[in-house]
Amino acid sequence: MEKVPMTAAGYQVLDDELKRLKSIERPSVIAAISEAREHGDLSENAEYHAAKERQGWVEGQIADIEDKISRAQVIDVSKLSGQQVKFGATVTVVDEDTEEEGRYQVVGDHEADVKSGKISLSSPLSRAMIGKEVGDVVEVPTPGGVKAYEILKVEWI
Known about the structure:
Keywords: DNA-binding, Elongation factor, Protein biosynthesis, Transcription, Transcription regulation. By secondary structure, the protein is an alpha/beta fold. The protein folds into 2 domains: 4-75, Helix Hairpins (Orthogonal Bundle), CATH 1.10.287; 77-155, Roll (Chitinase A, domain 3), CATH 3.10.50.30. The chain contains 3 helices and 7 strands. The chain has a 5-stranded mixed sheet. The protein is elongated and about 70 Å long. The model has no long low-confidence stretch (mean pLDDT 91).
């Protein structure tokens, strides 16, 4: 069983979502199915079919989150340090062509959100940076061609 690396914050988000699905969404769907059943003929009951479809989605989400939690390898970023880029590091880079700076934290796949500066461990940029240090230049294949980034700073926040 392959472990899923994640930060403590990412684990908490998953745990909160699982609790919400089990305590709010699941009972809500069960009530909607019960109510729709009372309307009679189920073969032509759109409300019933919509509620059953929603139930399938909710149960799928619950199973997916439970799977991730069971395989979670929670990594406390605050206890990490070092000069090399690895999981949990917050890295400041500069695009060598445009001189544009970017700041990204390397996180687990389900935590990734580029708009908030969190990139997946499996992203091309993360894979290129892992094991590198300040001053190293990494080349990243992109749809528009290879881009080069210089690592300016590695932080553990």
